[in-house]
Inverse folding.
């Protein structure tokens, strides 16, 4: 070791090495600082709320939002990348392969758009998308999304509680359920040529589920309006249920007195129930629901992670199902 | 064409070409180039190549007969072994990436997904074929017995097709399945037809029954 000394080598003291977490944090902080200053330069005194919002890739129109105060609305888990969120989708109206929607949804026309609200409400009518966008303050909420196929994501949605709309249209005493009807236009959606499902795609919620603050009417993600493949211009997001319950590109909301049939129930009633709450103890007849693969986060060789009851929202939504046999009402 | 097929570079070239999909998937896995769900991409990618190599292997004899490119026969073993190689990778992807080598998870999974069982059976039937693929095994078994044993590949191809059909039935998505079914129908149908013709010809000539080369 003689020659090392000659070169003036002094062994590094352990405490002089910056721990990884510290420098990673420092870099993260500097990065945020840079992003923040750029944002400020662009949008002068951008609302302080905008700083709290997840930065988007700058591809689509920005959709500023404030922080949500709803309990359970902000998971601290690592976000799934915008790239993955917008390129790995189930949206059969554009094809059954996960890459199809990103490839083919460019033909979807999201402007003009309106949503008809009808049925058991005191104030039925047609809502223009611009009116819906202004109906309540936009909030960013970071939800887990668990697909019935066994994979999951963490997505920063932009929108507000569905309850805001429900409140304004004033359901009558007969209203027990909501039915969501989505767009089915052959000229815009090439997947409609296949008969995988009966079009249009329909979904449903119980009125009390629709009124739960976590059930969300979504217009954007990652601080920007929804990419077409994610259900633009307006979709539902119900984080404690399997992803297919969160209907995309909604054109009609019907308040009804009887439990409506959903598309997946019509296709395979023994496999997909009306409730479809995320439940690791109730398997799909053809695969286990006990675990899930987190897209983009779990390494190729890492084990799948355990799926949580109600997708981790049990504290918030468990009481909606008190006393119900969840094996029977799957 | 025969001269080309007999060229000493033909086999090494085929080896390189047939390794291509494997290297491509490996490269994708290492460089995160397989999209949002690499485990799924690897499992499906290797599965697709099993079917493709099975079709190629089964196409050798009919092609040889139709075109007179008799030297194609030299390449058949390598094609078959590549089908086996991709089948091993496919099974490994399932057991490792999907099930984490957890026996209890696999035991629970199989009754739920019977197509896994069908795929495993197809894979199992390939084992004796791969194990007797070298010349000495052929000599030890005798050509007739070896040939009879290697007819198991027909069962493997049909089970593989059923496995793929069953998997895709979850989404009523049968386009690709129909493609493979059509190819296999031609390749296996031709064999049936040739065997039947051989038999009737042999019967008419009152010759002892001949066996058709597979």
């Amino acid at each position: 070791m003689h020659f090392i000394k000659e070169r003036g080598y002094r062994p590094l003291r352990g405490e002089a090495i910056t721990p990884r977490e510290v420098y990673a944090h420092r870099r993260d902080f500097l990065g945020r600082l840079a992003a923040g200053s750029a944002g400020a330069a662009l949008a002068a005194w951008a609302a302080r709320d905008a700083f709290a919002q997840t930065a988007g890739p700058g591809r689509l129109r920005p959709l500023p939002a404030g922080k949500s105060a709803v309990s359970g609305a902000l998971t601290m888990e690592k976000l799934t990348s915008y790239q993955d969120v917008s390129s790995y989708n189930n949206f059969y109206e554009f094809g059954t392969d996960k890459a199809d929607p990103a490839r083919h949804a460019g033909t979807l026309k999201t402007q003009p758009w309106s949503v008809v609200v009808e049925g058991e409400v005191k104030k039925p009518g047609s809502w223009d998308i611009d009116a819906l966008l202004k109906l309540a303050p936009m909030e960013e909420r970071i939800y887990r999304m668990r697909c019935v196929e066994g994979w999951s994501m963490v997505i920063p949605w932009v929108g507000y509680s569905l309850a805001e709309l429900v409140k304004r249209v004033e359901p009558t005493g007969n209203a027990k359920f909501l039915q969501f009807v989505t767009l089915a236009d052959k000229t815009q959606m090439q997947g409609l040529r296949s008969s995988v499902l009966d079009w249009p795609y329909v979904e449903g919620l119980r009125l009390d589920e629709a009124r739960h603050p976590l059930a969300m009417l979504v217009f954007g993600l990652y601080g920007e309006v929804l990419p077409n493949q994610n259900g633009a211009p307006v979709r539902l997001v119900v984080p404690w249920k399997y992803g297919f319950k969160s209907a995309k590109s909604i054109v009609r909301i019907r308040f009804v007195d009887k439990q409506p049939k959903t598309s997946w129930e019509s296709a395979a009633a023994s496999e997909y129930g009306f409730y479809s709450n995320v439940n690791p103890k109730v398997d799909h007849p053809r695969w286990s629901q006990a675990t899930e693969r987190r897209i983009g986060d779990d390494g190729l060789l890492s084990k799948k992670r355990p799926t949580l009851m109600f997708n981790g929202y049990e504290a918030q939504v468990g009481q909606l199902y008190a006393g119900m046999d969840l094996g029977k009402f799957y | 064409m025969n001269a080309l097929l007999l060229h000493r570079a033909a086999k090494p070239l085929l080896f390189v070409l047939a390794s291509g999909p494997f290297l491509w998937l490996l490269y994708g896995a290492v460089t995160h180039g397989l999209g949002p769900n690499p485990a799924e991409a690897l499992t499906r990618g290797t599965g697709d190549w099993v079917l493709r190599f099975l079709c190629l292997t089964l196409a050798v004899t009919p092609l040889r007969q139709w075109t007179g490119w008799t030297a194609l026969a030299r390449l058949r073993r390598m094609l078959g072994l590549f089908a086996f190689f991709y089948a091993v990778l496919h099974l490994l992807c399932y057991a490792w990436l999907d099930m984490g080598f957890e026996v209890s998870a696999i035991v629970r999974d199989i009754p739920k997904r019977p197509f896994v069982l069908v795929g495993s059976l197809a894979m199992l039937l390939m084992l004796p074929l791969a194990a007797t693929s070298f010349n000495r095994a052929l000599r030890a078994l005798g050509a007739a017995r070896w040939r009879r044993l290697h007819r198991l590949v027909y069962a493997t191809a049909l089970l593989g097709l059923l496995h793929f059909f069953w998997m895709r039935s979850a989404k009523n998505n049968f386009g690709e399945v129909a493609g493979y079914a059509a190819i296999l129908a031609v390749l296996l149908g031709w064999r049936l037809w040739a065997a039947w013709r051989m038999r009737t010809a042999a019967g008419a000539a009152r010759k002892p029954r001949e066996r058709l080369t597979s």
Summary: The CA atoms of residues 105 and 145 of chain B lie 39 Å apart. Chain B has one domain: 2-204. Residues 2-204 of chain B form one domain. Chain B has a mean pLDDT of 91.
